[in-house]
Specification:
The protein is an all-alpha fold. The protein contains 17 helices and no strands.
Amino acid sequence: MDRARRGGGDVDTLTNWRERLISKTTRPTLVTTYKYWLWLGFLVVITGNGGLQYWRQWQDGLYVTDMRDRISWGLYITAFVFFIGISHAGTLISAILRATKASWRAPVTRIAEFITVAALLIGASFVILDMGRPERILNVYRFGRWQSPIMWDVMAITTYLTASTIYLFAPMIPDLALYRDRLADKVGAVRNFIYRTLALDWNGSPKQHKLLGKSITIMMLIIIPIAVSVHTVVSWIFSMTLRAGWNTSIFGVLFVAGAIFSGVATLIIIMAILRRIYRWEEYLTEKHFVYLGYLLAAFGAFMVYVNINEYLTEGFNLEEAGVFAFRQLFLEDFAFMFWFYILGGLLGPVVLMLIPKTRTIAGVVVAAILVDVAMFFERYFIVVTGLRVPLMPYEPANYGPTFVEWSIFAAGLAAFCLLITVAIKIFPMFAVWEMTEEHEAAISGTHAGEASVVAGAGVAEAGTSMEYSSDAGGQVEGGGS
């Protein structure tokens, strides 16, 4: 009787928990405050200013930037590498967490997958922004040479964006069906059409769940090598040259590790913002931040190891160009960026996660901010310092982004935030069905543990009674004799 009552309570608790989760998930879609419109307006203004500055660049050419013949890449390519890097926040991290069956992954994966798609769209656009004649981008597909790493990069990013979109969409189908059924009379015709179309007639049958599980598993296995290949190929654009500072075989490892590193940091920052705004403390708990903080610290330590390998081996056989590259990094023009990257961006997160007092949500967010700033610095000095090394006996060129470049870069950041902001109003940011399954499994595991404890106590009691009976029997026998 107690067991039945307890089981009924579990069902009731799970039902209430799910309804509360649905309410919290749909709240951004149903409730729009004036703060949301102010934030949206601010992002539109920044993006619009970037559009105006790009129109000026289109009219006057790349002369309005500080890029010239000797330093032909600058802030735009830095932004391209940075955004492609943080795109690893979602698909790769989400796939790894699914593959390892991490029980805490469900509240994190959907946000991470949205970051991936948004970052890829913005990152790829910076390649077009860097071109003096952007309409010629189609020539890459028409006349591209497969011997060129640039061609490999274009194909890798296109494949990654396609796969990431599918990987975002497939696990979202049950939640889109939930929105279709729950919000039909609460949202407008456009969003109703989106939910009806994208839900693909989902009704939650066992057959559909089985097919969905298979498709997610297949995409998970496909997406990991694609994601690794993307940033490896990005690194090859630099390392397959004869320039000092770029011509190194370790760039592939450095770029992939740095991408995951900055991706985890971006995920932490966005999680913290959404948690604060929408009161998602029950679902994005301290455990999620601390676990991601451990991942951040682990990659920070690995990045230290990779950087030691890169600079130590190169430093032992320096040529004249290498001496110049090292001096501008360690002592001269880019010393502040470099040492902030090493001390603040790589060692900082490790130290913060080692100290128990800073192993908190605030400490993890601080570590994530340090990482993102440091990784942007790293991308910048990799791009610029390699081109700054003189190839002939002349004075090194200098480069500093102009107002046009900073405006377009700020527009890229704003457009990234804008995509996330708009997505929150339309799509579910939590995987409700996965989180419900995870919570149900946790409850079942808890009660299974309780049952085993009770059973163990029963066995112990039975053993004690048997012992007592046998002792009593021995005493009776002794008394009789």
